[in-house]
Amino acid sequence: MITILKFFTNDGKQTNVLKNEIISRTLLKIAVVSKYHMEKHPDKVPQPGEIWRCDIIKETSGGKNKGCFIVEPLEKVDEKEIIHLIPGLFYSKVINGRLIVIPKKPELNWILPLTHKHLYTEEAKAYCAIVQLDVTHEELLELEAKSQEKIKRLSNDLSQQAIAETQYLVAQSINGITSNVVEKLEAR
Q1: By the 8 A CB rule, do 27 and 4 touch?
Q2: pTM
Q3: Which stretches of the chain are DSSP H helices?
């Protein structure tokens, strides 16, 4: 799965990743560069403060907020090329406790702002958030169809609820009018 990560120097507070000098917390779970990649491509190892398009190749302790993601950096990304996702520009789904955010135009360098990550992961009861950039056109069409179906279902539910509430209010009004008429007739 391809995503964008920002790397920094490991401050040593994460005891399970002390051996890794460069880490990322972009996914709300630690990510480290694979040993294989570091050995084979020492010239393509992220430096502190750099942003890279990376391939997530493995997750240790999957489904839990412990362990880490192991990634292989693909290409360095200029910070000016980063675009912040806002509601309406993406689809999302939860898979095994991971919030997967899929931009409607995945070919760009998208990230989800930190405040949105925390809000959406809390709402979805997820332990991490991954902005997935390697989505096929067919997958996007399928997500759009599901999204439209959900909107239609919600719209129908709201319409049914509105009809029921209107019927209730009309019945209440009729009861009130009837009571009022009866009181006036009895008063004569």
Answers
A1: no
A2: 0.71
A3: 35-40, 114-124, 137-187
With b for 16 or more beta-carbon neighbours within 10 A and e for fewer, the 85-119 pattern comes to beeeebbbeeeeebbbbbbbebeebbbbeeebbee
Cα of 26 vs its chain's centroid, Å: 12
In one-letter notation, the amino acid at residue 96 is: N
Which tokens is 104 given?
């409607």
10-residue mean pLDDT profile of the chain (188 residues): values are 94 62 92 92 92 95 85 95 91 90 90 92 93 82 74 72 74 67 64
| Rounded Cα gap, residues 42 and 117, in angstroms | 31
What gap in Å lies between CA 23 and CA 10, rounded to an integer?
A: 6
Q: How far apart are CA 154 and CA 73, in angstroms?
A: 41
Comparing CA positions, the residue from 19, 32, 94 lying closest to residue 69 is 32
Q: How far apart are CA 155 and CA 148, in angstroms?
A: 10
Task: Give the per-residue pLDDT at 2.
Answer: 94
SS3 at position 44:
helix
Q: Which residue has the tokens 């009018």?
A: 177
> Taking the CB of residue 129, how many other CB atoms lie within 10 A of it?
25
52, 31 Cβ separation under 8 angstroms: no
